[in-house]
Structure formats: structure tokens, C-alpha cells
Design brief:
The protein has 176 residues and is α+β, with helices and mostly antiparallel strands. It folds into 2 domains: 38 residues; 106 residues, Sandwich (Immunoglobulin-like), CATH 2.60.40. Helix content is 30%, strand content 30%. It has an 8-stranded antiparallel sheet. The protein starts with a helix and ends in an 18-residue tail after the last strand.
């Protein structure tokens, strides 16, 4: 009995209490990290006015149909921080280009393109990350849309088939 008392140590010198407390302590720390991440980052996928956007989808579809009926086609080129749009089948007027990142709303860009000559429009772009982008080219009465994979090796064609690549009968990335 005297030997047992001599070997008895304070609880904090024993390994088992620390092993048993490690699990709950890890969960508490993970909870604080999760809360910090949730408060620090923005949930860009949730839209505040989802009902209004749902009602507006018919207008968007009718504008896309109008572009098809009018035979409007556009070819987009990226050139050193600028975008050049070659537009066919539409008259002169204000033109808007939207580049929308699929998951990060803070990276989206909206440009009012300036006409540099008939059928040719240009605008300045902020630097864009590599990846897939939704592209919307529009006027008040029509709209063209497609996806563009950046960095792009060629042009994006909206509203029609892209010219076939040399030696292949397939159209390129970005066909609507």
C-alpha cells in the first residue's frame, strides 16, 4: 500500500486524462475555425431576389430567341487586356458585355463596349483568372450567351458555329 502511494502522481501527470480531453478539445477548436470561415467568406451562390430572377427568365429567353431570328453572330477576341467583338447581323448601337464567373460574383465584369468601326467593338478588361466564364453579349432587344474557357487560344463565337479548326470538322470551344 505504501508503494502505491509513493507511485501516485497528480492527475495532470497521467497520460489518460489528456488523451480523453484531446477529442473534445479538437472539436471545440474545429468549431471556432468553422465559425471564423463562415463569417469571413461571402456565400456568392445565394441570390437575394431569386423570385424576381425566376420571373425574368422568360424575358431573357425571348431576347435570345430574337438574336437567333435576326441571325446575329459575334466573335470575341482577347487582346492584351482588351476584348474585341466582331458583330454581324445587327445595326449600330450600344453593346454590353458581361463576363460572369460561375462561382465568384466578385470577379464578374460588365463592360459597355465602344464601336471603333462599323461591326467592331472594343472594351478594356480587368485581369481575369483562368477557368470557365459565362459570356453574355447584349443590347436592349437581343442577347447572345455562351461559355468561354480561359486562357483562350482562339476566339469565342456566339450565335453560330465557330469556323472549323484546321484538319477537323468540329467547332471550337465557346459554340453556343
Amino acid at each position: 500500500m505504501k508503494a502505491d502511494r509513493a507511485r501516485a502522481q497528480p492527475w495532470y501527470r497521467e497520460p489518460w486524462p489528456w488523451i480523453l480531453m484531446a477529442g473534445p478539445a479538437t472539436v471545440v477548436v474545429a468549431g471556432f475555425v468553422t465559425a471564423w470561415l463562415a463569417l469571413r467568406s461571402e456565400d456568392g451562390l445565394v441570390v437575394d431576389d431569386y423570385y424576381k430572377q425566376g420571373l425574368a427568365i422568360n424575358q431573357t429567353l425571348s431576347r435570345s430567341d430574337a438574336a437567333e431570328r435576326l441571325g446575329i453572330k459575334a466573335e470575341l477576341h482577347l487582346l492584351d487586356g482588351r476584348v474585341r467583338v466582331l458583330l454581324a447581323g445587327a445595326g449600330a448601337g450600344a453593346l454590353t458585355l458581361q463576363l460572369v464567373h460561375p462561382t465568384r460574383a466578385g470577379m464578374d465584369q460588365r463592360l459597355d463596349l465602344a464601336m471603333v468601326q462599323p461591326g467592331v467593338y472594343e472594351g478594356r478588361l480587368a485581369p481575369m483568372r483562368a477557368g470557365r466564364w459565362h459570356v453574355v453579349l447584349e443590347r436592349r432587344d437581343w442577347r447572345l450567351a455562351g461559355d468561354w474557357l480561359l486562357p483562350a487560344a482562339g476566339a469565342l463565337t456566339l450565335g453560330g458555329r465557330a469556323p472549323p479548326a484546321a484538319g477537323s470538322g468540329k467547332s471550337g470551344e465557346g459554340r453556343q
